[in-house]
Amino acid sequence: MLLLLAAAASVVVNLTNDSKREEALSYTTSVAILVLVLINASITSYTEHQAGNALDALAKLSQAEVSVLRDGKPVRLPTVEVVRGDVVVLETGDVVPADVRLLSTSDLKVDEKALTGEPEDVPKNTKIKEQTKLTPENMAFSGCPVASGRCSGVVVATGMDTRIGEIAQMMAKEDDDAGRCSCGSTSSKTPLQENVERLGARIGMAAIVMASAVFIAGVGIGTKDPEFPDSPS
């Protein structure tokens, strides 16, 4: 919104300045800002659309059974019977039935579009690292399809206690609060929303850098002010 206001202000200034109406270069800043806004809006729309498609696909892909280790042997159990502490075994094509901390992996990649909007399959392993990503590398989350490889892991959360369950509760709460004032309230954000906000911040910084570069370049080449051509640059 701030970028749009800046672009509008730049256009108004140029239109009301007789000496600049015929100069195409005077609109460079406005055009650059609008291009950045359009790019940001396009990427945001695409990401949310992809996430929406992923959620629809997950509803169709939800499997009825999963392989669980019982007495050291894998047995097939209904997904709804999986509880915390169970050790599940997953292969390519399986859908993770709960939030799972990985115990072993083999070339494992998981599709996390439904959680983060990430278009690429995410590699997973058992290493515990300082968390710098939205989803830890040693965790597989409920509802995410196994894109490739295999793994075993211990269930740490099921049902509405899973990451995707928390997101569903947040969305339901937002629907319940629709139409009511939420001024001053603070609500947690989904990983997808955090990704979109980070993208917006980066594009905003890019706009500032671009504007600064144009200004510095203008000063460097000694650009004159059209209204005061005789003044020192």
UniProtKB/TrEMBL annotation:
Q: Which residues cross the membrane?
A: 24-43, 199-221
GO function terms (MF aspect)? ATP binding; ATP hydrolysis activity
The reply to whether Calcium figures as a keyword in the UniProt entry is no
Q: Give the species.
A: Symbiodinium necroappetens
- The organism's place on the tree of life at top rank: Eukaryota
Q: What is this protein called?
A: Pma1 protein
Keyword annotations from UniProtKB, A to Z: Membrane, Transmembrane, Transmembrane helix
Q: What is the lineage of its organism?
A: Eukaryota, Sar, Alveolata, Dinophyceae, Suessiales
Record's GO cellular component terms: membrane
